[in-house]
Amino acid sequence: MTVPLRLAVRRHDVSLPEPARTALRISVRLPSDLEVVEEAVDVVARHCVAEGLTARRARFNLRVALCEALANAILYGNAENAAKHVHVHVTITEPHFLVEVQDEGAGFDPAAFANVSLPHDLEALGGRGLFLIRQLVDDVYLNERGNGICMVLRRA
Amino acid sequence: MSFTMRKDASGVVVVGVDGQLIVSNRHELKQKVLDAADGGARKILVDFSDTGYIDSSGLGALVSLAKKLREVDGELRLAGLNEDLRTLFELTKLDTLFTITETVDDALKKF
Q1: Cβ of B92 and A128 within 8 Å?
Q2: What's the ipTM?
Q3: Can you give the pLDDT at residue A113?
Q4: B24 in contact with chain A, both atoms CB, cutoff 8 A
Q5: Is the pLDDT score of B88 beyond 60?
Q6: Which residues of A touch B59 (CB under 8 A)?
Q7: Residues B58, B90: Cα–Cα separation, whole Å
Q8: Which CATH superfamily, name and number, covers B2-110?
Q9: Binning pLDDT at 50, 70 and 90, where does residue B1 land?
Q10: Cα gap A36→B93, rounded to integer Å
Q11: Which of A59, A129, A69, A138 is nearest to A97 (CA)?
Q12: CB contact under 8 A, B57 and A37
């Protein structure tokens, strides 16, 4: 049985201001379905490895951080609404891999993201996702609306 | 990604995680382990030898299962973590919550 293509992937060159000048941009649009998270993570990681992201940072840092961001976007941002999508844009420049994940939800207060830490209770069932993202990428930003996250991985 | 389950001669139930343990399959793992516990299993060893990555949902599922097994005087232990997975447990301090053994064979001897 043929598995239908569930992700829309685009790869194109973009122009950026100096000093980055040119970059490659990979865009992936996925439905609000947790079943496609692994596939989307794999697609993005493979493109990043092809563009020079080191194997460990792709295998571990990028995969786990992106998985967290996609799960948050699908579960909390889009509330698993089938009519909504999650958009991933990876901009690859000489020094950086910028991985943006945006949902179509109302967003949450970016201020709440400022002091993310591990849950006080070690046995808490949740509350580690944003902490892990912060630990695994070099920089992370939320957009003003709170429905988009940009994770920065330095090349080296 | 899938989960395997076998009972060792010592009585320990070994659950293998083949692929990822993430938001999309965590419930499946929980159900398998809870079914085993309902069937009388009290010593569960999760084997991560063939695991790629784990996300926070997967970690949460392991914490939840460890709690549930403890409630019935059982225990959930972990083995076969590669360097990445060990780092993940250390970052989240969950390495202090679980008994983690390097290899499955070693874990079975000590369980």
Answers
A1: yes
A2: 0.94
A3: 76
A4: yes
A5: yes
A6: 128
A7: 15
A8: STAS domain (3.30.750.24)
A9: low
A10: 29
A11: A138
A12: no
What structural domains and CATH numbers belong to chain A? 8-154 (3.30.565.10)
pLDDT in tens, A62-78: 999 999 999 999 999 99
Structure tokens at B14: 């070994």
Domain segments of chain B as ranges: 2-110
**Reduced DSSP (H G I as helix, E B as strand, rest coil) percent helix, strand, coil of chain B, to 5:** 45, 30, 30
Chain B contact for A68, CB < 8 A? Answer: yes
Residue A139 touches partner B, C-beta closer than 8 Å: no
CA distance A99 to A85: 16
Provide the token pair at A134: 């912060």
State the first-to-last Cα distance of chain A, in angstroms, to the nearest integer: 41
pLDDT per position as a tens digit, A49-105: 999 999 999 999 999 999 999 999 999 999 999 999 999 999 999 889 999 999 999
